[in-house]
Amino acid sequence: MPLYHIQNVLNGGEITPLMRGRVDQPRYGTGAREMRNFVPMPQGGVTRRSGTRFLGMAHNDAARLISFVFSATQGRMLEFGDKSMRVWLPDGRLVADENGAPKVFESPYAAADLRSLRFAQSADVIYFAHQGYAPRKLSRHADDDWRWSVLSFVPAIAAPGDVSLQIVDRGYDGDNATRVYTYAVTAVDGETGQESGVGAEVGITAKALNSVSYIIRATWPKVEGAAYYRVYKKKYGVFGYIGRSGAECSFDDENIGADTEDTPPEHKNPFEKEGDWPSQVFFHQQRLGWAATANRPITVWLSRTGDFEIMAASTPPKDDDAIEATLAATQANRIVWLQPDRQSLTFGTEGSEWTLSAGEGVALTPSNISFEMQTANGGDNAAPAISVGGGVLYLQRGGKAVRQFAYNYSADKYLGQDVTLLARHMLRDAAVTVWAYQQEPCSVIWCALSDGTLAGLTYMPEQEVMGWHRHDTDGRFEDVAAMPGTPDDQTWFLVRRDCGLCVERLDSFFDADDLAEAYFLDSALNYQGPAATRFNGLDHLAGREVQVFADGGTVDGLAVDADGGLTLPRPASSVHVGLPYTSRLVPNLPEIQTRQGSSMMHNRKIAAVRLRTYRSMSFLAGLEGNLTPIADRHIRAGAFRTQPFFSEGTDLALNVCGGWADESPLIVEVTSPTPLTVLAISTAVDVSPYSGKGGF
Description:
single chain; 696 residues; mainly beta; 4 domains
């Protein structure tokens, strides 16, 4: 009598072969031996990866994509090339010049340096760091107006010059002069609120200001752009604030006491020359931060609070002053990533992971910073750390492992969980070179690997969802970036194909009744219109054999002409043309606890399988060497708005003809450009009392 095994959670992802003995591990029961071009969903099922839409060729043969995210609903994709930049809109169009041609903006960065570029964004401004370049910012004034600036880290407003002092006589006798009074004046920018440095100190000799017999009057010329001026007087060698002046550009000191707790700013640029240019940039607690120069690889700099481009300090220091902090560690391993988390700035060096904080609920100031070492795994500079699910994900040294750096209340410290432990084979022969986080709809981190393939991690730790999956295409994935979109976040790729470097976008996950929205071809273009047989504009696929999804049916064996044209054997009004790819799901062997013990390592025979599918069409299923086509026979030729054959929650019974074997995993495969979502698998298994090869 067969035993029945239910897999109603399939989002454990692809599991390393080293885990095939750990049938007690929950991820074994939810995982798979192979998950290729399938995506685990947080809800429990797996769905076929959507295809990619061809948007255009990259401007240069070497390029990088950087997302420009103004808000949760507005983004642009920046395509950087060799000292060039183009701007892509969310609908896949390039920003054009006045002649309608794609507009190419200048960029300071050479192609060889793009991969090491780090960036941090605030609204319409994005800041860039690279050890070979002075810090810069890119400002968007309009979609066709982007401007670069080299940061000076000092205010643009000038200090008042030629401050003059005079004694206004109230019965003063100059022969009784006893001391020198020294003053300084700063200007405050009316637009930015930034305070200039002081000009030259100026002094005057007078008797002690202990009466109202005279005053000292300071005057200075107007400074362009100044809203008002701050006046300081020296007391015991330290300048202290005594008052402010407006447009009159003068100030009368009537024996005002200097507040030496409020001193003028001391501006400096810590990144003036090569060797002092930072390689990391980030935001933390309303400050813009920089880190890891060639000369000081374990130093962190933070701007003044709320004043991102000012590195001013004061004597004595103020709470909102800029901060400079150097890590005291036994090894001078450079900082390779930084990411704000909770109350701390988390960061990693090539040898260990740290926090920089001031204590729970306390903001950082120059006088309360504290470094604390948390773990000693070591990070990699290939890709910046990202915040996901209440923690920080970073690449371990070598790029072959991903760790979650998150606070653990039981341990009262940050821990570095290896989220690749159960799928180490995924990164055994290839390292992560770049990654991007697509939050909606499935919370996936997409990782481009050094071998040109793509790995994905469906990651939602609050729901205990963590599943790796692999993806390939007829080409090499070289870059990936993500930005907000509707209904799904958008994931963009740079893919190297026979025609060159292509800019492509992952299509939305299929969840519709209209098969016109089913895109399961790579580097694809689509047509919606009057029925036709001849289609042009497929130049990037010239000479390639392609697959066509036309009016709900698959057409194989067609090739694109050298001029980019394609002819269908019959007219169609809804046409998708692109490169095919195979999706393959091989769940782990079902292991069942019987009265005699576990079925593990016993011969078994799969008698029947039932699949619960969702909005799916044609696919293959069965055992190795005996896959059965499961076709949608209910689509009428030319009728497109029909209910998919396997609609919401459709159960399919498969009669498989498997023999006795110690290994006979179920295989689900899709080679046609059609959707497939599997929600659950029920397997009827006969278990032999014998183990080992053979059967009875």
